[in-house]
Design a protein that fits this description.
- By secondary structure, the chain is an alpha/beta fold.
- The protein has three domains: 155 residues, Alpha-D-Glucose-1,6-Bisphosphate, subunit A, domain 3 (Alpha-D-Glucose-1,6-Bisphosphate, Chain A, domain 3, 3-Layer(aba) Sandwich); 210 residues, 3-Layer(aba) Sandwich (Alpha-D-Glucose-1,6-Bisphosphate, Chain A, domain 3); 87 residues, 2-Layer Sandwich (TATA-Binding Protein), CATH 3.30.310.50.
- The chain has 17 helices and 22 strands.
- Strands 1-2-6-5-3-4-7 form a seven-stranded mixed β-sheet, sandwiched between helices. It has a six-stranded antiparallel β-sheet with strand order 17-22-21-20-19-18.
- Strand 10 and strand 11 form a beta hairpin.
- The longest helix is centred in the N-terminal third of the chain and has 18 residues.
- It is globular and about 65 Å long.
- 51% of the residues are buried.
């Protein structure tokens, strides 16, 4: 792929800094976004929000994007500093803007930077809108209009703003911040050197008895002690040790832009993302007594269907990515939306919010008086037993991608791992369902030669067999 090639994935554009991600390419994508917002979203009247995370060159890229967008006649609200993704998204609603550009590579390696685009709801652009935007990317070498940032600030075409007060007011309508602050919970916290640094403490306010015992809480774009700021093992190993060393009641990690969450129980054991989603649904349905649809991607937990049936709420399954989850949340006025990667959203803002989810989980502990491990046991009692989940990521040669896909397209297995296959879903990857609502899923990365094999099942002894069967089906070696 040439350095001028721009390829959008499930949540925008991402590339390696200095190779594909250059100022020249950034300006091309910013110009396309400006034209999209101006021509399709009343951007000239409403303006857009531009923010960024803590990564190398993220601030400079955000400023460069603001110069281009302003030159195309779209006013810009530019955050004053590094800002979590959910705060940027809520700022769209608070400012009644046409959308947002967010310069972040989220949980990806330190060499990367990204370009996320959001619509007037604060959520991801729907696939059709993203296609329109991509079609407007200028050719390499084409002149891109821009206005000097100092001039744009002086004229008001770009306005600096602090998004924090509006976001805190929003969070206060979703959870009782005073109750959480008074509770005195000890939270081992890892913001993973990212945009979440200091935000949870600030949301609870000075004098809070609940304490965040933080590690990796200063900016470091190289993300030492982890391969990437993704809140899953082994990147959370330091947090697990920190939980045990401090005797914390719970461990919480946010990824590099604080839209995803990782959770450790009181013993430093990892609570996987499917379990976290189950606990959030349990909190909303049983503890808070709220009702509404639940939206899940096909890579997340089937226990939500079991819980939804118990409480009489619909559960809808979408393709992977919040560009599918967000629109479905709005369509159904959903109570919750989420995905396997640890991103979850609440009614009102169809965007992943690792900060609000962290506070909701603390509130669940406070209102029930239960530890994380006890809450998991309570949840599994609600759904009729323990479920088991695992994922394997396997690399292959890019030259073999077509052959691997062809094998999976042709495969019609009647059993996997010795268990009969009830049906096959090829909407977004290859999902093989079993009669007990367990499943095995195979999906490909859209940007690299990587295959993911997932399984969730009530059969503890079948997990490895299902994963092995998926690899054999694809003809790929682990």
């Amino acid at each position: 792929m040439s350095d001028d090639s721009i390829q959008f994935g499930t949540d925008g554009w991402r590339a390696r800094i200095g190779e594909g991600y250059t100022f020249a390419n950034l300006r091309r994508v910013a110009a396309a976004a400006a034209v999209y917002y101006r021509d399709h979203a009343d951007g000239a009247a409403r303006g857009i929000v531009i923010g960024h995370d803590q990564r190398f060159l993220a601030r400079e890229m955000a400023e460069a994007a603001a110069e281009v967008v302003a030159a195309h006649g779209v006013p810009v609200w530019l955050t004053k500093g590094a800002t979590p993704t959910p705060v940027i998204s809520y700022s769209v609603l608070a400012r009644k803007a046409a959308g947002a550009i967010n310069l972040t590579a989220s949980h990806n390696p330190p060499e990367d930077l990204g370009f996320k685009v959001r619509d007037a709801t604060g959520g991801a652009l729907a696939p059709a809108a993203l296609t329109l935007l991509e079609a407007r990317i200028p050719a390499p070498g084409e002149e891109i209009g821009r206005v000097d940032l100092a001039e744009a600030l002086q004229s008001g075409a770009v306005r600096l703003f602090d998004p924090a007060p509006d976001y805190r007011a929003y969070v206060a309508t979703r959870v009782d911040l005073d109750r959480i602050a008074r509770a005195g919970i000890r939270v081992a916290y890892d913001p993973m050197w990212g945009a979440g640094i200091g935000w949870l403490e600030w949301l609870l306010g000075p004098g809070a008895r609940t304490r965040f015992l933080a590690i990796h809480a200063e900016r470091n774009p190289s993300f030492p002690e982890m391969s990437r700021p993704e809140p899953i093992p082994p990147n959370t190993d330091a947090l697990a040790r920190h939980v045990r060393a401090t005797g914390a009641d719970v461990g919480i990690a946010n990824d590099g832009d604080a839209d995803r969450i990782g959770v450790m129980d009181e013993a430093g054991g990892f609570v996987n993302q499917l379990q976290v989603y189950g606990l959030l649904a349990y909190y909303m349905l049983k503890v808070r007594g709220e009702r509404g649809a639940i939206i899940k991607t096909l890579s997340t937990t089937s226990t939500l269907e079991l819980l939804g049936a118990r409480y009489g709420v619909p559960v809808h399954e979408t393709g992977v990515g919040f560009k599918y989850v967000g629109p479905k949340m709005l369509e159904t006025d959903a109570m919750l939306g989420g995905e396997e990667s640890g991103g979850f959203a609440f009614r009102g803002l169809p965007e992943r919010d690792g900060l609000l989810v962290a506070l909701a989980l603390l509130d669940l502990m406070i209102q029930t008086g239960r530890k994380p491990s006890e809450l998991l046991a309570d949840y599994y009692a609600e759904v009729g037993g323990v479920w088991h989940y695992q994922r394997r990521d396997v690399r292959f040669r890019e030259a073999d991608r077509a052959a691997v896909r062809a094998r999976l397209d042709a495969a019609e297995p009647t059993e996997l791992g010795g268990v009969p296959v009830a049906r096959i879903d090829r909407r977004d990857g290859y999902k093989y369902w079993f009669a007990d609502q367990g499943w095995m899923l195979i999906r490909f990365s859209g940007t690299e030669p990587l295959m993911r094999v997932y399984t969730e099942t009530p059969r503890a002894d079948a997990v490895q067999a299902f994963l092995d069967a998926g690899l054999r089906l694809a003809g790929v070696e682990a």
